[in-house]
Amino acid sequence: MIEITEVPSPFCGIGTDDLTVQIDGLTVKVSANGCTVNTPAFEQTITDTSACVDGKKVSLDVAVAQAAELLRGSNQPVIGGCATDVNGMRGVMALADKSGAVVDNINFTAARRNFLALQDTGWMNTTLAEIKNRCDLLLIVGVDLEGFAPRFFERYLWNKESMFLDDTSQRNVVYLGKAPSGDVSTSPAGVKAKVLECAETDLPEVMAVLRALVKSKKIVAESVCGITLSDLQIVADQLKAAKYSVVTWAAGALDYDQAELTVQMLSEMVKDINTMNTRCSGFPLGGKEGDQTANQVCGWTSAYPARARFSSGFPEYDPFLYDSNAMLANGEADVLVWVQAFNSASVPPITELPTIVVARSGMTFAKQPAVFIPVGTPGIDHAGHAYRLDNVVAIRLKKLRDSGLPSTADVLNAIERAL
Amino acid sequence: MLIKLTGGTVYDPASGIDGQVQTLYVQDGRFVKQPAADVKIDKEYDLKDKVVMSGAIDMHTHIGGGKGNIARMLIPEDHRKDPVYRSDITRSGCGHAMPSTFATGYRYAEMGYTAGFEPAVLPVNARQAHMEMGDIPILDKGGYVLMGSDDYLLRMLTAKKDQKAINDYVAWTMNAAKAIGVKVVNPGGINAFKFNQRKLDLDENNIHYGVSPREILQVLATAVKELGVKHPLHVHGCNLGVPGNVNTTLDTIQGIGGLPMHLTHIQFHSYGTEGDLKFSSGGEAIAEAINKNKNITTDVGQILFGQTITASGDSMRQHANHGFANPNKWVCMDIECDAGCGVVPFKYRDQNFVNALQWAIGLEIFLLVDDPWRVFLTTDHPNGAPFTTYPHLIRLLMDKSFRNDMLATIHPEAQKMTTLASIDREYSLQEIAILTRAGAAKLIGLDDRGSLGEGAWADITVYTDNADREKMFEKPDYVFKDGELVVVDGKIVHTKWGTTHIVRPDWDISVEQDLQKYFDRFMTMKVGNFKISDDEITEDGRGSLTTHTLNSIS
To answer: What is the rounded CA–CA span in Å between residue B360 and residue B272?
Structure first.
């Protein structure tokens, strides 16, 4: 058995890189600094190692040739999932370019709420180390932060030391919308987070009123969606009084129509506060299953986020038209490629179309796909890179064991060459 | 493979060749001596009446790193007009102001460029910079690591650490980020913005650290020199874009006390406050100061009219300028106690007085700096204009009548505020070769590049001489990269992967003990995970590292 320390995780999105793992053959055990997200993701055992065509075991070469054959006969393939490391995503992009596919990241419909706001008005954001050292007020909008990232508070808010705060336990935490599922947001000094609850679909209204209060607009009502105006006024005053407040949200948790307008309202409020002689930053949560990685790599190779089409011979971006689920439902695709190197529970959408699955070992199917090639997991079976939620830091993933499984990049590059 | 390039008119300032007819030989990627008569030539190119230069080097272009990708994400509407179709040998892409990586490589190569250097590599974002540049085909690349607003350095300065300790930290950071130079952006200003300071003059203190930009410039310029790094400290000064900043820039030149210093995109730092509109040219004063101070080099950051996007580490100044965003959307970020960035789309208009005068100021500086070895041709891509405007810019420098025709079309008040019409200078082909080849290679400290001399790598551009210099420079007849033919008649015929240029200055190993404590206490990753290893650049089988020599340290 060998022990490896300072292991970075691609699973939790917040880039924890202090895990200790014990490796015994192919078995991985997280022995320190695990959490409910990371530990099972690291410890999942390898089951299948052999590629399959129509459910029958074949050599990798045969599976690759079959995948290429399917793509060669396709008029409009879609590559869904796109949950992998940087090199895997490079492979996705090369394959999409050659086969004229649509590239669509698994979390794009959620991330679209952010991209629409970004591409309409922009934002002012920050990153984890700034939060750790500067944030004196964290406003959490519409998300159970500890459910999203169990170790967020421990690592970035209740850290013992910070460079610019005398006492990190004095930080203010306010929840707007959704209440926390546990109590890790309670400060080490015992101060509970303030919670202003409302229904998820009331957030557009509540955020609009909060921004109005920040801008000192007169509001006649006494309450909004069950939150008293005086409570919201306190939050507005706190935001203006804080030296470095941070407003965080998760696009995936804002699951209602036109939620991009909530993201925009919130981001514009952040900009407003920065014109009121103090600082404030936004902080979008994400980074799971390679979603930032997919958008970054698609971003630099095509200039667009990871919902783009290549069938015209050049990249085209449309955050609605190239939704792979909609394309499958509307009969606009004829082959599905599903790339999911992180999560074997994340199976391809149900479709009658020939499906090529390049995914983490252990994925099981209601109906056997035309081609299934189990691949190694980035950060366990091979080295690689993955982006953290704040989109700035690409963590260097380590190879922890020698499973012999190919990487996503190996497989996709082989298919591309065989085309 | 032995290649013979026969009878071209050669401009190779590195070898002192100025327009002489010569025959060149290339073997295994490098220039070689004329072989013996019985040696078989594998391929011969007749270059009679052609202009031959080495491959051009862009010493300051934003081609890799997070802010560039934010810029891409921000303006999809700008990409749609400018698709790049896939071919059997090239990848698709798109983008006018901030093209995708593959399009970037192809477009540079098709203009005769064979190397580009990203000037603002944030240490914490260096992986991304290298990964993006790793997807730029054909070009060699490299980066200058951005320091000066990182809390670690500012803590050192507050704690009065000695220069040796700073040198160690700078060397460590260069190694960790795989850099070839050191850049400072609005020294300390990006940090001060996080403390809500909205401006920071050269002698104004950061309110938390009590450290001024002048001190930061002094210690970093000293570190770069003492480490033997050939590229001088690469400085984006204080007060970018602020009318009156010409005085800050002159003070910066004086204040560095003779240390080597490169002032980048100096056009944005050469503004006076004269005239009815309180905006005037400081171009003449700046050029005079550069002419006098031989320790100073500069690149211009010329603006050219049209839509672009500005992507800068200078979050303080970008935030201050967000009101000019066109279209009206913008991004600012504070980044990891390391730096920051701001991304603001801009549309420079010839009928806008300020933009028109900015255009004239840049050209004044180009034409009034005497020594072509100390001025470099940049638009600060994409900030002044996309790099694809270089042939047009070269024509403005080489053709006085064309320049004056253009001048006559800009905002009339701006015409009155510039001396441009009275400047007769026209750049020669040899001078252009200095600005874009030999001088750039020397400034960056590239061994064996930017020259057509024996032993140098065979990066070659061949043009058909044309009085219309824009037409000439936008479409070379041939481009060779490392001796391989990659472009014919301005179109890619073959692609390959360039190398990543770095230096590896020494540092005292003990520096990492303090860094480890700092990372464990305050940062969000382990110091061991922060450092970029060689295999991260090379493991995909395409990338490689080329380590350059340092100046001998006395």
So the answer is: 13
Range of the domain at B272: 55-426
The answer on pLDDT for B418 being more than 90 is yes
Domain A111-285 belongs to what architecture? 3-Layer(aba) Sandwich (3.40)
Residue holding tokens 């934003």? B62
pLDDT in tens, B267-311: 999 999 999 999 999 999 999 999 999 999 999 999 999 999 999
Average pLDDT, chain B: 97
User: The tokens 């590195």 sit on which residue?
Assistant: B14
For chain B, the domain total comes to 1
Check pLDDT > 90 for residue B262. Answer: yes
Could you give the 3-state DSSP secondary structure of residue A64?
A: helix
Q: Which chain A positions have a beta carbon within 8 Å of B79's beta carbon? A: 303-304, 315, 317
Q: Do B333 and A126 touch (CB under 8 A)?
A: yes
Residue B410 has pLDDT above 90, yes or no: yes
B340 within domain boundaries: yes
The half-sphere exposure of A106 on its side-chain side, counting CA atoms within 13 A, is 24
Task: Give the pLDDT score at B540.
Answer: 86
What pLDDT sits at residue A287? 81
Fold topology of A47-107+289-418 = Rossmann fold (3.40.50)
Q: Verify whether the Cβ–Cβ distance A17 to B526 is below 8 Å.
A: yes
CATH number of the domain residue B313 falls in: 3.20.20
Which value, in Å, is the radius of gyration of the alpha carbons in chain A? 23
Residue B460 lies in a domain: no
Helical ranges in B232-301 per DSSP H: 245-255, 283-292
C-alpha separations of B459 from A419, B225, B251, B547 in Å: 33, 29, 39, 18
Stretch 196-215 of chain A: residues touching chain B, C-beta under 8 Å: none
Q: Where are the domains of chain A?
A: 47-107+289-418, 111-285
* Contact criterion met (CB < 8 Å) for A385 and B127: yes
Q: What is the pTM of this model?
A: 0.97
| Chain B residue nearest residue A278, CA to CA | B196
- pLDDT value at A56 more than 70: yes
Question: Residue A176 pLDDT > 90, yes or no?
Answer: yes
Backbone angles phi, psi at A362, to 5 degrees: 105, -5
pLDDT on residue A15:
87
Residue of B496, B498, B497, B475 lying closest to B110 (CA atoms): B475
Of B69, B194, B525, the CB nearest to A134: B194
Q: Given 3-state DSSP classes, what are the helix, strand and coil percentages for chain A, each rounded to the nearest 5?
A: 35, 25, 40
- DSSP string for A354-379: -EEEEEETT---SS--SEEEEEPPBT
Contact B333/A295, CB-based, under 8 Å?
no
Tell me the average pLDDT of chain A: 97
Instruction: Confirm whether B422 is domain-assigned.
Output: yes
Closest residue in chain B to residue A310, using alpha carbons only:
B92
CA dihedral A86, A88, A91, A92 (to 10 degrees): -100
B9-56 pLDDT, tens digit each = 999 999 999 999 999 999 999 999 999 999 999 999 999 999 999 999
Nearest CA in chain A to B152: A163
Taking CB atoms and an 8 Å cut-off, how many pairs form between chains A and B?
194
Beta-strand (E) ranges in A48-206? 51-53, 56-58, 77-83, 102-104, 122-125, 137-141, 172-177, 194-197
State whether B336 and A129 contact (CB < 8 Å).
yes
Residues in chain A: 419
Supply the pLDDT for residue B554: 60
Domain membership flag for residue B50: no
Residue B195 has pLDDT above 70, yes or no: yes
| Number of residues in chain B | 554
Helix axes B66-74, A291-302, angle to 10 degrees: 80
Q: Distance between CA A344 and CA A362 in Å, rounded?
A: 6
